[in-house]
Amino acid sequence: MKKSKYYYSGKFGIERETLRVDSQGKLAQTPHPFGSDEHITRDFCENQIELVTPVCHSIDEALCSLAELDRRAREVLAEKGESIWLYSNPPHIESEDEIPIADFTGDHSSKRSYREVLQRKYGKKLMLFSGIHFNFSFAEEYLRELNTENEDFHAFRDTLYLRLYKQLILHSWLLVLLTAASPCYDASLDKDGMSGMIISRYSSMRNSERGYWNKFLPILDHRSLRTFTGSIKKHIVTGSLYSASELYLPIRLKPKGVNSLENLAAGGVDHIELRMFDLNPSAPLGIDSRDLKFAHLLILYLLSQPDFDLTPALQEKAAAEHKNAALLEPDIKLLERGAAMIDEIAEYFSDNEEAQQIIGFEKNKINSNACFSKTSMNYAL
């Protein structure tokens, strides 16, 4: 893949979900205190904050923006005796009554209707799992350089993002292996009235079989953006999905402006979203910059790989490997593949010293995870 001066450029954005808790560490029962601020909004429930950075021109800039939003949010919450729960798994919950659906009204009342559908379909507790979404788009100048055959630019762009989407779907397990950070949870997540910490069999519950997945695996047609959006529409028409937002896969293709299937079909792909990052409680903002920078390198590496047919069988395999990577002791073969893939990425970026440091940071995680898996440690609760 050609490495022009625009190669590492692009647009970057971060969305971070967290829960609001009171001084006792319980879910806050107060209304969302940030009004209609588009950068400090709600997700599923009234006590779940989503910080949304503006579009930035680097990961560092996006993290600076996230830090400012985090500071503003914490200041307001501190005045109310509340704080941010910086874990992907929720705190102790007495009952689902403590999980009020986000109170969207007026022009946004449809958002509440959608969340009521999710409540009936999946229950409220599942919706409390929180994480980081990473949004990325290539610099337009770079895409135009790649378009050597002078194809229609919008068609070329859509085809390129769809090809990248398939690669990321097939390799999402690698980012789960590297960023899983939620093995412990409160027993109340299993049953009302229960309490106490449990170390689960998962390193990331929200990415595991217990996490964000549809009741079935939606098989999609990736031959073109038209067939892709059409296959999603079929699931909606048959009632399998309420809307495209209910498509719980770890990667999304997003349009510019309002995120709707109609916008995506009409206007094409604006950016790609990676949705698998756990909140990292050891990082002040919930995410380590090196993890996001590795994700960017992975995107660039996968763009260099040949296209392929993402068959139904491969879609099933991708989902299974994603869930396998979320185990506390993932399959050793998956760890070995992860190490080999990181070596390939290191070779691809052999001329970039900063990239080598980031890749080395991630490789150490794989090596540590492999050693852990081989020991087959048993936890005594």
How would you describe what is shown here?
- Strands 1, 2, 3, 4, 5, 8 and 9 form a seven-stranded antiparallel sheet that branches.
- The longest helix is centred in the middle third of the chain and has 27 residues, at 153-179.
- The chain is 41% helix and 13% strand.
- It starts with 9 loop residues before the first strand and ends in a 6-residue tail after the last helix.
- The chain has helices spanning 59-79, 109-122, 140-146, 153-179, 225-237, 261-267, 289-303, 312-325, 332-348, 353-375; strands at 10-21, 40-42, 48-52, 83-85, 131-138, 184-186, 197-199, 251-254, 271-278.
- Helix 4 (153-179) packs across helix 7 and helix 9 packs antiparallel against helix 10.
- By secondary structure, it is an alpha+beta fold.
- It contains ten helices and nine strands.
- It folds into two domains: 10-85 and 91-128, no CATH class; 149-270 and 281-375, Creatine Kinase, Chain A, domain 2 (2-Layer Sandwich), CATH 3.30.590.20.
- A hairpin with a 5-residue loop joins strand 2 (40-42) and strand 3.
Give the helices and strands, then pairings.
Blueprint: E1 10-21, E2 40-42, E3 48-52, H1 59-79, E4 83-85, H2 109-122, E5 131-138, H3 140-146, H4 153-179, E6 184-186, E7 197-199, H5 225-237, E8 251-254, H6 261-267, E9 271-278, H7 289-303, H8 312-325, H9 332-348, H10 353-375
Antiparallel strand pairs: 1-3, 1-4, 1-5, 2-3, 5-9, 6-7, 8-9
Helix pairs in contact: 4-7, 4-8, 5-6, 7-10, 9-10
Salient structural properties:
381 residues; 41% helix; 2 domains; Creatine Kinase, Chain A, domain 2; alpha+beta
